[in-house]
Amino acid sequence: MPEVKTRDFPAASAVSILDPQIRMALQRAGTGFDGGRRECIEEVTPQVWEEWREQARQTKLHTLDHLDYYLEMLEERVSANGGQVHFAADAAEANAIVADLVRTRGVRIATKSKSMVSEELNLNHMLESIGVDVYETDLGEYIIQLAEETPFHLVAPALHKSKEEVSRLFTEKLGVPPMDDINALAAAAREALRQRFLEADLGISGANFLVAETGTLVIITNEGNGRLCTSAPRIHVGITGMEKVIPSVQDLAVFLRLLPRSATGQRITSYVSMVSGPRKHDDEDGPEEFHLIVVDNGRSRMLADPDLREALMCIRCGACLNICPVYQKVGGHAYGWVYPGPIGSIVSPMLVGLDQASDLPQASSLCGACREACPIRIDIPRMLLHLRHKLAEEPDAGGRAKGTMPRPIANGFAKVMANPGLLSATRKFARAAQAMLLGSPISPLARGGRGIRKAGLPLLSKWTHSRDLPEIAPRSFGEIWKQELSNPDGER
Ligand code: SF4
């Protein structure tokens, strides 16, 4: 497992929020990817889009309810096609399976197409430790590998890098001259990787979907590298989470419509590759061996939790990241592990432990934009609230998370909000106290102007450190309603 830095979220996000390069990259993703997604919805019509979403959601719900059945079917069909399925309970088991294949088959060089699960396993590190040269072949992943970083976004791992940074990196690591043309940079990467594709003994891929009825691994890419990884080397190993299985090819159709549109605003990706086993005796090419490693690594725990199993329906399109007001400010690295953004704030605590990632469920305004954007209608805000609840109720889950209201204050707040008379009295008292503090020449609050800003007021300082606390209004909405708005005949 890669180093878990989820505990650093508050400090890391405070740093990344001030980085102009990250701000610009996130703005591009927000307008580009999300703008494209919205255009696609208009093109197919919102009504058809909603039908697709419902169909995909029902398919995922059905599959999760019968996951053991479909995984058995998958194993049977892959075996019938001449491949081999391995089930791995955790990262150590998955890595041990790959290491055994490497040792027994004399593998020296491996090429990889994009796979988030392999990031979860820290597979590259393990392979390098046993003497295998590993090359990421997705351009974004290749950049990240050269920079020794982790992905910044689910579908655009090097989103945060400017072309100038990539040029400097390529000059340093590949020895090519500096260049400022993106096509030239892509050509330099292609040139460096071409020979690796030809030399590799082992090709490793992830899977966007696993079709149970045919034993097929499906990957969608825009660069064609996935196809080279799965067909050129003599051994192909597919590694993916057990939740990627779907029942049939017919079910696949709706996901192939939803995923590229939600991810990048494309009607379809440039390549849709379907692998159903090793080369047959009359095939001209293809791998001699096909191994599919189906990884659990904490997913059974999620499946067993009725409140969180919905997170397993995620197809990693990244739409929730592109629209999230928190991700859009702090970017992917602040989340401290493999999966960033709103869905990462649920998946990471479940996979690395809630005690390790207790800040992540707080990293949401609960605005619901992620649920609206999600092609599977995954109810992310509900699950974030559930995790917050767990943190508040279960000391073993990490105790009270930083940023969570202490229980006596929460109870007091609930009492005040439930009692209109008490609320009105509290509001009047708070307004008087605020006026007194603002009027005092020695008050730190007075120095912030009309609102309270950066004041060291106990309890409020975390809020006011980066936001204004507006002056409390002279009349509440309830009073305005009673006095003016509820009287349609009265003068306004
Ligand atoms: S939760 Fe939904 S929107 Fe977010 S990555 Fe997963 S499928 Fe896409």
CATH fold topology of the largest domain: Rossmann fold
- Beta-strand segment tally: 10
CATH homology group of the largest domain: NagB/RpiA/CoA transferase-like
User: In the CATH hierarchy, what is the architecture of the largest domain at level 2?
Assistant: 3-Layer(aba) Sandwich
Strand order of the largest sheet: 1-10-7-4-2-3
| Text of the CATH class of the largest domain | Alpha Beta
How much helix is in the residues?
40-55%
Question: Any ligands, ions or cofactors bound here, and which?
Answer: iron/sulfur cluster
Low-confidence residue ranges: 446-451
Structural class from helices and strands? alpha/beta
Approximate strand percentage = 5-15%
If you compute it from the alpha carbons, what radius of gyration comes out, rounded to the nearest whole angstrom?
A: 26 Å
Structure explained in plain terms:
The protein is α/β, with parallel strands linked by helices and 492 residues long. It has three domains: 1-44 and 323-400, no CATH class; 54-297, Rossmann fold (3-Layer(aba) Sandwich), CATH 3.40.50.10420; 407-485, no CATH class. 50% of the residues lie in helices and 10% in strands. It is built from 22 helices and ten strands. It has helices at 9-16, 20-44, 46-65, 67-80, 91-105, 116-121, 123-129, 139-147, 163-174, 182-199, 225-231, 249-264, 299-304, 319-323, 327-330, 341-352, 369-373, 380-393, 407-418, 420-439, 461-464, 477-485, and strands at residues 84-88, 109-112, 133-136, 202-205, 209-211, 216-221, 235-241, 245-246, 271-275, 289-295. A hairpin with a 4-residue loop joins strand 5 (209-211) and strand 6 (216-221). The longest helix is centred in the first third of the chain and has 25 residues, at 20-44. The structure holds iron/sulfur cluster (SF4).
